[in-house]
Design a protein that fits this description.
The protein has 224 residues and is of the alpha/beta class. The protein is built from three helices and twelve strands; from the N terminus they run E-E-E-E-E-E-E-E-E-H-E-H-E-E-H.
Length: 224
């Protein structure tokens, strides 16, 4: 969970520990309302392939970046009364950009960008199959490098057999560890006929272990 944002007379809590939960306070007017707008922040990269020649006379093809543009896709807009919260129920990773507007003054009073850099991200791995766990851990090692974050793992077997050096801390399920910036459950939820789309955004039918974790961590980061 992020630290509370105290912007007198407001206080805001933005919690990424299980989906997205935003709590708002007007410390002077408990009847005030806020408009919360959540967006997905995306990058669109235009590139082309070109031949490159080196001094030895050999040639190779490389990618040239022409343009890199950030843009926002609306995720949801909600009006929330002071001392209340709104929960976005999707549980996978989303690169959120958040705006909070004082509904009384129509003033933009807070913005926040989801950013895992140098923060702890926890992964609750719902499996005891060693091959499945190894596949997921390989992806999480890549995720850590890409996002420049710290990693904690919640899984009883991995807690007892701490064999992955890139992990910053391990936890058993019963420890109920919650002191992290963002948290994600990795696993197969629901059934193939009735998938839990808040947990597995593209379902689980016919999916292997690699596709399961890619959907949870990359469905809304790489797909438009």
């Amino acid at each position: 969970m992020t630290q509370p944002q105290n912007l007198y007379p407001y206080t805001f809590y933005v919690d990424y520990s299980s989906g997205l939960k935003i709590t708002v306070f007007d410390n002077l007017d408990s009847e005030n309302e806020f408009v919360i707008r959540a967006y997905t922040k995306k990058s669109k990269i235009q590139s082309k392939l070109k031949w490159t020649h080196n001094s030895a006379g050999s040639s190779y093809i490389e990618e040239e970046i022409i343009n890199n543009k950030d843009f926002l896709i609306e995720w949801g807009t909600h009006v929330v009364k002071s001392n209340h919260y709104y929960t976005y129920y999707y549980k996978g990773l989303v690169p959120y950009f958040i705006e909070i507007v004082d509904n009384k003054t129509d003033e933009l009073v807070h913005t926040e960008i989801f950013d895992t850099r140098h923060k702890l991200v926890n992964f609750n791995l719902h499996s005891d199959n060693l091959n499945t766990l190894h596949t997921w851990m390989c992806v999480l090692e890549k995720f850590k490098k890409e996002n420049e974050c710290q990693i904690s793992i919640t899984n009883d077997y991995l807690k007892e057999n701490q064999q992955y050096d890139f992990v910053d801390c391990y936890w058993s399920v019963e420890e109920n560890f919650e002191r992290f910036y963002a948290g994600y459950d990795i696993g197969r939820f629901g059934t193939e006929e009735a998938p839990h789309l808040f947990m597995n955004p593209d379902g689980i039918q016919g999916k292997n272990d690699l596709e399961i974790i890619e959907d949870i961590l990359y469905h809304y980061t790489k797909n438009l």
